Write the structure tokens for this entry.
Amino acid sequence: MAQKARQTRATRPARTQANSKSRAGAGRQSTAGRGSEPSVHRAAATANGRDGDRDAAGGMGLEASGAILGANPFLGIDFTGLMAAAGVWLGNLGRRPARLVNRTAGGVVELGKIAIGRSDIAPERSDRRFVDPAWAEHPALHRVMQAYLLVSSSLQELVGDAELDPLTERRARYAVMLLTDAAAPTNSLVTNPAAIKRAYDTAGISLVRGTRNFVNDLRTNGAMPSMVDKRPFEVGRNIAVSKGAVVYRDEVIELIQYAPTTDTAYQRPLVLIPPQINKYYILDLAPDRSFVEYAVSQGIPVFAISWRNPTVEHRDWSLDTYVQACLDAILAATEITKSSDCNLFGACAGGITMALLMGQLAARGSDMVNSATFAVTIMDTHAPSMLGMFSSPAMIAAAIRRSRKKGYLDGGEMSRIFAWLRPNDLVWNYWVNNYLMGNDPPAFDILFWNADATRLPAGLHAGFLELFSGDPLREPGALEVLGTPIDLEKVTAPTYVVAGVTDHIVPWMAAYGATQTLGGPSQFVLSSSGHIQSLINPPGNPKASYHTDGPETADPREWLAEATQFRGSWWEHWAQWIGARSGERARRAQQLGSERYPPMDPAPGRYVHQT
């Protein structure tokens, strides 16, 4: 399908404009969790009361919250492919001995400088592993650190020297990263000065605590370091506390209607479609950080889908099952609000489901959807991404076979596997904190949500993976939804597409594909955050910013070069955009639900508590 350039401009928010035509920094992909990220809620206390430990864990959790993979239902890690890529890399190097010799000779010279104390090698400012003063002040440790950094960088340079094809190079670089991250001197007790001092200061108690944490993780967390202290959090008590009620329930979903908090409200409802692999409350975290709470405060009638946690008996639930559930939710929301149509908001995999629903409605000639917001949703499956790095036909077929054999994809198991895509942030970070330092993991709401994983039925898992075979989202008639061939080109409703500049799961250029795949006008917004923190982006963070109002172009780089940067949260910009598409404001309804859809359980409902 030919690409088209479509871009409309939303009203600019009344905020300070910065870098009017920014063409530089925002376009560079930086390591998630190491740049400017919105603040993340930390529990006020932990059971042991070690204030210094809490502060250190809090900073670690902030970084990790920018690196977690979130709602990621697709593939595991293809270790066979990694070994093959490493073999190709070494083979290519063997055929280019001059480059290997030159690189080795340069390394030997630099090692000599390290030995006599004349090397300028230093860690990047964002590398938190070497912040302890001993790495700079102790002569032996300083040389160990420099030698490690030299070897790590030299191996990555040798990957470039081998002249591999793009996919093989990415896999080889990842394999080298796994090796070098694991070999970091900070991961060993004998070469980690902070851990040694901690053991001395606590008379060895930190080592006892670390051993206890290690044994607990062996027993309860698949031998992976725990990322979060779950004890301070409880769904319905301090997480997912927005007032509302379940107004519709079937075997797949609960639909929650939220109570208005303004005297007047818009007529047209907003239906939130969350990702299926995690619980819905990523959109309703702690107060003042809840997207639901914010949207309701803007007078928007908000409804949210809460997915059931499927078991083996639901193995045949497919994309059609979930699209139909979304359609049923729309029918309930529009009946309750007496509106002929609605606005939709889809996040991550929920956004993909929303696109398929809109394609099906367009094929039927239905105008039930007035507008749609796509949040960190991959719509260009050919764009380079971590998912695409392992997206081969053999890998897809193997993943489908595994989930069909079991009946479902286990989200907790997948989360542990995917932690190895970001080993420094999601594995070794916690290895040091939990085991070497003997600390508890941080208590963060985002990390709590990330650990509260669900299962994905085998049928739905296969359906998602098939979207990465070819490019069916952009090919008319390549997909059939509820018995109807769809063409997303025929979706003419206006869309708001938000992506994160440091998103390593849905690279922003892959999310930009929605502006070219769908047939209607599209407003693209690029947040300064990563995957999850682009969703959790409440107003008030002085470091937050976003780009928008770029030119009409099919090239995302060209769009960014001409886009305007604004300070603040994209939530505020979106509120103006959605408000203009939500109809008239009127006195709010006094009660939730309707005669046909009476309120049942209070929010957050029953399905969110299923394990």
